[in-house]
Amino acid sequence: MMRSDKQCDVGPHGAPFSPPAPTRAPRQPSPGPWVARLLGMKLTAIGVLRWNGDAKEPNVLGFACDLSNFGYFQRGSVRDFITFTSRTIVQRTQRGQRQTVQHEDYFIHVHVKESGLAGVAVCDQEYPQRAAFSVVTRALEDYGAKFGDAFRSASGDGQEATPVLEQCLARFQDPAQADKLTKIQRDLDETKVILHKTIESVLERGEKLDHLVEKSSDLSLASQMFYKTAKRSNSCCKMM
Protein backbone atom coordinates (compact mmCIF):
# COMPACT_ATOMS: atom_id res chain seq x y z
CA MET A 1 0.00 0.00 0.00
CA MET A 2 1.48 3.34 -1.01
CA ARG A 3 1.75 6.16 1.47
CA SER A 4 0.42 9.57 0.55
CA ASP A 5 2.65 12.60 0.24
CA LYS A 6 1.05 13.93 3.39
CA GLN A 7 2.17 10.88 5.33
CA CYS A 8 5.75 11.37 4.11
CA ASP A 9 5.83 14.80 5.81
CA VAL A 10 4.91 13.39 9.20
CA GLY A 11 7.62 12.31 11.61
CA PRO A 12 7.43 9.89 14.54
CA HIS A 13 4.40 10.23 16.84
CA GLY A 14 2.63 12.35 14.24
CA ALA A 15 4.96 15.34 14.65
CA PRO A 16 5.64 17.36 11.51
CA PHE A 17 8.84 16.25 9.84
CA SER A 18 11.56 18.88 9.37
CA PRO A 19 14.56 18.12 7.21
CA PRO A 20 17.90 18.45 9.03
CA ALA A 21 19.57 21.81 8.74
CA PRO A 22 22.41 21.80 6.24
CA THR A 23 25.78 21.38 7.92
CA ARG A 24 28.17 24.28 7.53
CA ALA A 25 31.50 23.41 5.99
CA PRO A 26 34.32 23.78 8.49
CA ARG A 27 36.20 27.02 8.14
CA GLN A 28 39.52 26.53 6.43
CA PRO A 29 42.59 28.18 7.94
CA SER A 30 43.79 31.18 6.00
CA PRO A 31 47.04 30.73 4.11
CA GLY A 32 50.01 31.48 6.28
CA PRO A 33 53.18 29.96 7.71
CA TRP A 34 51.51 26.54 7.97
CA VAL A 35 51.29 26.47 4.17
CA ALA A 36 55.00 27.16 3.90
CA ARG A 37 55.75 24.36 6.35
CA LEU A 38 53.45 21.99 4.46
CA LEU A 39 55.21 22.72 1.18
CA GLY A 40 58.65 22.44 2.75
CA MET A 41 59.52 26.14 2.41
CA LYS A 42 61.94 27.33 5.05
CA LEU A 43 63.58 30.66 5.83
CA THR A 44 66.47 29.48 7.99
CA ALA A 45 68.41 32.66 8.76
CA ILE A 46 68.61 36.41 8.16
CA GLY A 47 71.72 38.47 8.78
CA VAL A 48 72.95 42.06 8.51
CA LEU A 49 76.63 42.81 8.01
CA ARG A 50 78.94 45.72 7.24
CA TRP A 51 80.84 45.24 3.98
CA ASN A 52 84.51 46.27 4.31
CA GLY A 53 85.70 45.67 0.77
CA ASP A 54 87.00 42.46 -0.74
CA ALA A 55 90.29 42.56 1.19
CA LYS A 56 88.81 42.61 4.69
CA GLU A 57 86.20 40.46 6.39
CA PRO A 58 82.75 42.02 6.94
CA ASN A 59 81.48 42.81 10.42
CA VAL A 60 78.44 40.89 11.58
CA LEU A 61 75.80 43.26 12.98
CA GLY A 62 73.26 40.58 13.87
CA PHE A 63 71.79 37.22 12.92
CA ALA A 64 68.48 35.49 13.55
CA CYS A 65 68.24 31.74 12.92
CA ASP A 66 65.50 29.12 13.03
CA LEU A 67 67.32 25.79 13.33
CA SER A 68 64.37 23.72 14.50
CA ASN A 69 64.74 21.35 11.55
CA PHE A 70 68.26 20.38 12.64
CA GLY A 71 69.19 17.99 15.40
CA TYR A 72 69.86 19.58 18.79
CA PHE A 73 73.55 18.73 18.78
CA GLN A 74 74.00 19.99 15.21
CA ARG A 75 72.58 23.44 15.77
CA GLY A 76 75.70 25.08 17.15
CA SER A 77 77.81 23.92 14.22
CA VAL A 78 75.11 24.86 11.69
CA ARG A 79 74.87 28.36 13.21
CA ASP A 80 78.65 28.72 12.98
CA PHE A 81 78.63 27.60 9.35
CA ILE A 82 75.83 30.02 8.45
CA THR A 83 77.89 32.88 9.87
CA PHE A 84 81.02 31.67 8.10
CA THR A 85 79.41 31.26 4.67
CA SER A 86 77.52 34.54 4.95
CA ARG A 87 80.69 36.45 5.82
CA THR A 88 82.61 34.70 3.03
CA ILE A 89 80.03 35.51 0.35
CA VAL A 90 79.37 39.10 1.49
CA GLN A 91 83.12 39.81 1.30
CA ARG A 92 83.12 38.60 -2.31
CA THR A 93 80.07 40.63 -3.35
CA GLN A 94 80.54 44.12 -4.73
CA ARG A 95 78.60 47.24 -3.76
CA GLY A 96 75.19 47.35 -5.42
CA GLN A 97 75.37 43.66 -6.31
CA ARG A 98 73.06 40.75 -5.54
CA GLN A 99 74.28 37.16 -5.49
CA THR A 100 72.65 33.80 -4.83
CA VAL A 101 74.93 30.91 -3.92
CA GLN A 102 73.74 27.33 -3.69
CA HIS A 103 75.14 25.00 -1.04
CA GLU A 104 73.64 21.51 -1.08
CA ASP A 105 69.89 21.97 -0.49
CA TYR A 106 70.17 25.60 0.62
CA PHE A 107 70.56 28.98 -1.04
CA ILE A 108 72.38 31.98 0.43
CA HIS A 109 70.96 35.23 -0.98
CA VAL A 110 73.19 38.29 -0.51
CA HIS A 111 72.66 41.97 -1.28
CA VAL A 112 75.33 44.59 -0.62
CA LYS A 113 73.96 48.13 -0.86
CA GLU A 114 75.98 51.03 -2.22
CA SER A 115 76.34 52.28 1.34
CA GLY A 116 78.15 49.07 2.35
CA LEU A 117 75.29 47.71 4.45
CA ALA A 118 74.74 44.06 3.51
CA GLY A 119 71.90 41.61 4.07
CA VAL A 120 71.77 37.83 3.89
CA ALA A 121 68.89 35.34 3.74
CA VAL A 122 69.51 31.59 4.00
CA CYS A 123 66.61 29.52 2.63
CA ASP A 124 65.84 26.07 1.35
CA GLN A 125 65.32 25.37 -2.35
CA GLU A 126 61.54 25.83 -2.20
CA TYR A 127 61.64 29.37 -0.80
CA PRO A 128 61.33 31.68 -3.85
CA GLN A 129 64.39 33.75 -4.72
CA ARG A 130 62.33 36.89 -5.32
CA ALA A 131 60.71 36.57 -1.91
CA ALA A 132 64.11 35.98 -0.29
CA PHE A 133 65.55 39.21 -1.69
CA SER A 134 62.42 41.05 -0.60
CA VAL A 135 63.06 39.81 2.93
CA VAL A 136 66.67 40.99 2.73
CA THR A 137 65.56 44.43 1.55
CA ARG A 138 63.00 44.70 4.33
CA ALA A 139 65.54 43.64 6.96
CA LEU A 140 67.97 46.31 5.77
CA GLU A 141 65.20 48.93 5.76
CA ASP A 142 64.14 48.00 9.30
CA TYR A 143 67.75 48.12 10.47
CA GLY A 144 68.25 51.53 8.85
CA ALA A 145 65.04 52.90 10.38
CA LYS A 146 66.24 51.97 13.86
CA PHE A 147 70.00 52.52 13.68
CA GLY A 148 70.54 54.84 10.72
CA ASP A 149 74.19 54.92 9.66
CA ALA A 150 75.53 53.53 12.93
CA PHE A 151 76.96 50.56 11.05
CA ARG A 152 79.60 52.81 9.49
CA SER A 153 81.40 53.08 12.82
CA ALA A 154 81.30 49.35 13.58
CA SER A 155 84.79 48.13 14.40
CA GLY A 156 83.86 44.55 15.25
CA ASP A 157 81.01 42.09 15.36
CA GLY A 158 77.82 42.91 17.25
CA GLN A 159 74.26 41.76 17.79
CA GLU A 160 72.33 45.04 17.78
CA ALA A 161 70.38 44.01 14.65
CA THR A 162 69.26 40.63 16.05
CA PRO A 163 65.91 41.76 17.59
CA VAL A 164 64.89 43.39 14.30
CA LEU A 165 65.91 40.29 12.36
CA GLU A 166 64.05 37.93 14.67
CA GLN A 167 60.81 39.76 13.86
CA CYS A 168 61.50 39.46 10.12
CA LEU A 169 62.37 35.78 10.45
CA ALA A 170 59.09 34.98 12.17
CA ARG A 171 56.96 37.15 9.88
CA PHE A 172 58.36 36.01 6.55
CA GLN A 173 58.40 32.26 7.05
CA ASP A 174 55.38 32.55 4.77
CA PRO A 175 56.83 33.68 1.40
CA ALA A 176 53.43 35.14 0.45
CA GLN A 177 54.07 37.88 3.01
CA ALA A 178 57.40 38.62 1.39
CA ASP A 179 55.84 38.63 -2.07
CA LYS A 180 53.66 41.55 -0.99
CA LEU A 181 56.81 43.58 -0.48
CA THR A 182 57.94 43.12 -4.08
CA LYS A 183 55.01 45.16 -5.34
CA ILE A 184 56.56 48.28 -3.85
CA GLN A 185 60.18 47.38 -4.52
CA ARG A 186 60.48 48.31 -8.15
CA ASP A 187 64.26 48.29 -8.04
CA LEU A 188 64.35 44.56 -7.41
CA ASP A 189 64.32 43.74 -11.12
CA GLU A 190 66.77 46.48 -12.03
CA THR A 191 69.73 44.69 -10.46
CA LYS A 192 70.69 41.39 -12.00
CA VAL A 193 71.14 38.53 -9.54
CA ILE A 194 74.33 36.53 -10.08
CA LEU A 195 73.75 32.83 -9.45
CA HIS A 196 76.51 30.51 -8.28
CA LYS A 197 76.05 26.76 -8.10
CA THR A 198 78.62 26.29 -5.32
CA ILE A 199 80.42 28.33 -2.69
CA GLU A 200 83.71 27.45 -4.40
CA SER A 201 82.62 29.31 -7.54
CA VAL A 202 82.49 32.55 -5.52
CA LEU A 203 86.05 32.20 -4.28
CA GLU A 204 89.03 33.81 -5.91
CA ARG A 205 91.29 31.67 -8.06
CA GLY A 206 93.53 29.60 -5.82
CA GLU A 207 91.25 29.89 -2.78
CA LYS A 208 90.01 26.65 -1.26
CA LEU A 209 86.95 26.30 0.96
CA ASP A 210 88.72 23.80 3.19
CA HIS A 211 91.51 26.31 3.82
CA LEU A 212 89.04 29.08 4.66
CA VAL A 213 87.28 26.72 7.07
CA GLU A 214 90.55 25.95 8.85
CA LYS A 215 91.47 29.59 9.42
CA SER A 216 87.98 30.96 10.09
CA SER A 217 87.33 32.51 13.49
CA ASP A 218 83.59 31.82 13.01
CA LEU A 219 84.05 28.08 13.32
CA SER A 220 84.97 26.42 16.57
CA LEU A 221 87.21 23.37 16.54
CA ALA A 222 84.11 21.24 17.05
CA SER A 223 82.42 22.87 14.04
CA GLN A 224 85.53 22.37 11.90
CA MET A 225 85.64 18.70 12.84
CA PHE A 226 81.91 18.38 12.16
CA TYR A 227 82.38 19.96 8.72
CA LYS A 228 85.20 17.56 7.83
CA THR A 229 83.31 14.53 9.11
CA ALA A 230 80.13 15.54 7.26
CA LYS A 231 82.09 16.12 4.07
CA ARG A 232 83.75 12.70 4.25
CA SER A 233 80.56 10.84 5.02
CA ASN A 234 78.27 12.92 2.77
CA SER A 235 76.21 13.63 5.87
CA CYS A 236 72.53 14.53 5.74
CA CYS A 237 73.34 17.75 7.56
CA LYS A 238 73.08 19.76 4.36
CA MET A 239 74.29 23.06 5.81
CA MET A 240 77.68 21.45 6.43
From TrEMBL:
InterPro entries in UniProt: Longin-like_dom_sf, Longin_dom, R-SNARE_YKT6, Synaptobrevin-like, V_SNARE_CC
PROSITE patterns: LONGIN (PS50859), SYNAPTOBREVIN (PS00417), V_SNARE (PS50892)
SUPFAM superfamilies, alphabetized: SNARE fusion complex (SSF58038), SNARE-like (SSF64356)
Membrane-protein topology: Lipid-anchor
Record-annotated Longin domain positions: 47-148
Domain V-SNARE coiled-coil homology: 180-240
Main subcellular location: membrane
One GO term (biological process): endoplasmic reticulum to Golgi vesicle-mediated transport
Top-level division of the source organism's lineage: Eukaryota
GO molecular function, one term: SNAP receptor activity
Family, as annotated: Belongs to the synaptobrevin family.
Protein name per UniProt: Uncharacterized protein
